Please model this.
Amino acid sequence: MKRKSVFLVALVAFMVFSTAKAQINLGEKALGAVQKGYTGFTFSNEDAAKLSKEAVAKMDAEHVIAGPTDPYTVRLNKIFGKYTKAYGLELNYKVYVIKEVNAFATADGSVRVYSGLMDVMDDNELLVVIGHEIGHVVNKDSRDAARAAYQKEALIDGAASQSGTIAAVTDSQLGKIGSAMIDSKHSRKQESEADLFAYEFMKKNGYDVNAVESAFSILAKMSEGAQSDFLTKMMSSHPDSKERAENARKRAEKDGLYKPYVHQTPVVTPVKTTKPAAKTTTKKKTTTKK
Ligand SMILES: [Zn+2]
Model:
């Protein structure tokens, strides 16, 4: 009896294994429900945008967001506010009040800048980093990252196995997809293209292109120093910051625009409060440790 059931289990296991294998070989028609979610779906730009938007909404809910009158927001408005409708994109942006040095942009046009990054970069350098992130969106790297993150989750948990649409992603999967999108490692080629994008962005809009070299030098210095803890995975996965700084310098030299960049101390304009605002959220600045 016992032997029989062991045999049965083995047989079933073999059958499952061989059919699974056969399904993959037979193509889409024979795909089982689980695989269908992975290989049988089409992942359009709209899907990427929708998924990204949901993932960002979840991340927003999990972070302390600088309010409209917060000095970080005021500063970012001033620096970046006028570029939300560039490159056929509809960008929205927010500051996460967190010590980490990071920024990211997702396929739906959400730009999130960490206050830790704003603390170490001056206005020009900050635009370089944001420009780099937007470069990933414009170049569709962010779409591909969203797709890859989704595929990974769908493959592991059989997400969207029935419908093959991204709506079937669970909340915890959405969280994982969000983190994967932030940490996504783009290829070297994608990175240097985004760097070029940032450089061109600065040049086109009349900024000092030497801020590109400076921004990457700051990241290079940080990754070597004691502050490396605050560099997120995404930033530290750019181990070649030094090289990228050099590339930016060479580019500026070639353009005849090179001159040593003088890093400005980030100016944080204190908010003028003529009358007490309805929302009195003033505790944020000192309680970033979470
Ligand atoms: Zn990048």
Q: What stands out?
A: The two ends are 58 Å apart (CA to CA). The CA atoms of residues 98 and 288 lie 6 Å apart. The chain is about 55% helix and 5% strand.
